[in-house]
Automatic annotation (TrEMBL):
The keyword Ribosomal protein does not apply. It comes from the Bacteria. Keywords: ATP-binding, Cytoplasm, Magnesium, Metal-binding, Nucleotide-binding, tRNA processing. SUPFAM superfamilies: P-loop containing nucleoside triphosphate hydrolases. InterPro entries: P-loop_NTPase (IPR027417), T6A_TsaE (IPR003442). It is found in: Cytoplasm. Signal peptide: none annotated. NCBIfam families: T6A_YjeE. This is tRNA threonylcarbamoyladenosine biosynthesis protein TsaE. GO terms for cellular component: cytoplasm. Coiled coil: none annotated.
Length: 136
């Protein structure tokens, strides 16, 4: 597990860009953290690092967004759902890099041991970001 201390939004985006370059199609990243912790900001940096130009908003209301980057990215925010069933997450797992906020609501779909895990916590000076690769 890696632990990064992040002081501000630009540092969170830079960390996201660094993480993105370590990932590929078929990888799943489970993003955990309280509301406002910076999950979507990390995703924004990851997407920008992969060449996405344009807005990146939390998919809280449309639940799933896909981006035609290289690799293609699927970003899901499951905060408002009780279950992943019926929203089509399965359709992306083999063809996209999948980023899932509030992954507890996808229990049974993804084995956490086979996924990247990112946990963001508030600290006095910003955020603490723990990144665990699959198998750890």
């Amino acid at each position: 597990m890696e632990v990064h201390q992040v002081a501000d939004e630009s540092a969170m985006k830079a960390l996201g860009a660094q993480l993105g370059h370590r990932l590929s199609v078929g990888d799943v990243v489970l993003l955990r953290g309280e509301l406002g912790a910076g999950k979507t900001t990390l995703v924004r940096g990851l997407l920008e690092g992969l060449g996405h130009v344009g807005a990146v908003r939390s998919p809280t209301f449309n639940l799933v967004q896909s981006f035609e980057t290289s690799p293609p990215v699927m970003h899901a925010d499951l905060y408002r759902v009780g279950s992943y069933l019926g929203i089509g997450l399965e359709d992306y797992l083999d063809t996209h890099l999948s980023l899932i906020e509030w992954p507890d609501r996808a229990e049974g779909l993804i084995d956490p041991a086979s996924a990247w895990r990112v946990e963001i916590d508030f600290t006095e000076i910003g955020r603490s970001v723990k990144i665990s690769p699959p198998g750890t």
